[in-house]
Design a protein that fits this description.
The complex is a heterodimer of chains A (114) and B (112).
Chain A: E1 4-7, E2 10-13, E3 18-25, E4 31-37, E5 44-50, E6 53-57, E7 64-70, E8 73-79, E9 87-94, E10 104-105, E11 109-113
Parallel strand pairs in A: 2-11
Antiparallel strand pairs in A: 1-3, 3-8, 4-5, 4-9, 5-6, 7-8, 9-10, 9-11
Chain B: E1 4-5, E2 10-14, E3 19-25, E4 32-38, E5 45-51, E6 56-59, E7 62-67, E8 72-77, E9 86-93, E10 101-102, E11 106-111
Parallel strand pairs in B: 2-11
Antiparallel strand pairs in B: 1-3, 3-8, 4-5, 4-9, 6-7, 7-8, 9-10, 9-11
The chains are: A mainly beta (114), B mainly beta (112).
């Protein structure tokens, strides 16, 4: 299995809702990442987990809450989002933390906040 | 302040010819550079990378050149194929942080 699987592929949520994005990989990778990509913009790093511990938080608002329950799974819990949070949320993994290990990206979750 | 820049939003090339995509960076701490390809509704797919200790890396039709003094890298695709039509992102990273900084992307169209 050489894939990063993200679910759901599409999500529409209201500003008062609580939802979660899920990311799964079975490649034995020990680093996992959340990126956010707005339309016609490059992906921007949100969080990095290394060996299930939060390694980097790029000053992301607390309405985004990451969780890494085990080495294969990465969640992003969403609460009280704003319409400007609508974007493509990409998960990635790598063997270890570090660009030279190569990232594998998932297909993303297209989030719309209404 | 954009640390990684792709100044050409789009590029159109005839099938069989060379495609050259360019990328500039400002942070001298970057020591690893990557190119990703992205189709609509999909995540980026890794193409090729280069470490700052090299000035060229080749993989099949794809070659990446790095000019550290100019803080410039380029991706050459030879020969270009219609299936290469996609958005190409340049990315840079430093000191094994795992943090990739992406450029804005260049949309490549290869015409049959």
């Amino acid at each position: 299995d050489t894939e990063v699987t993200q679910t759901p592929k599409h999500l529409v949520m209201g500003m008062t809702n609580k939802k979660s994005l899920k990311c799964e990989q079975h490649m034995g990778h020990r680093a996992m990442y959340w990126y956010k990509q707005k339309a016609k913009k490059p992906p921007e790093l949100m969080f990095v987990y290394s060996y299930e511990k939060l390694s980097i938080n790029e000053s992301v608002p607390s309405r985004f809450s990451p969780e890494c329950p085990n080495s294969s799974l990465l969640n992003l819990h969403l609460h009280a989002l704003q319409p400007e949070d609508s974007a493509l949320y990409l998960c990635a993994s790598s063997q270890q933390q570090g660009a030279d290990y190569g990232y594998t990206f998932g297909s993303g979750t297209r989030l719309t906040v209404v | 302040d954009q640390q990684v820049k792709q100044n050409s939003p789009s590029l159109s090339v005839q099938e069989g010819r060379i495609s050259i995509l360019n990328c500039d960076y400002t942070n001298s701490m970057f020591d690893y550079f990557l190119w990703y390809k992205k189709y609509p509704a999909e995540g980026p797919t890794f193409l090729i990378s280069i470490s700052s200790i090299k000035d060229k890396n080749e993989d099949g039709r794809f070659t990446v050149f790095l000019n550290k003094s100019a803080k410039h890298l380029s991706l050459h695709i030879v020969p270009s194929q219609p299936g290469d039509s996609a958005v190409y992102f340049c990315a840079a990273s430093g000191s094994n942080t795992g943090k990739l900084i992406f450029g804005q992307g260049t949309t490549l169209q290869v015409k049959p």
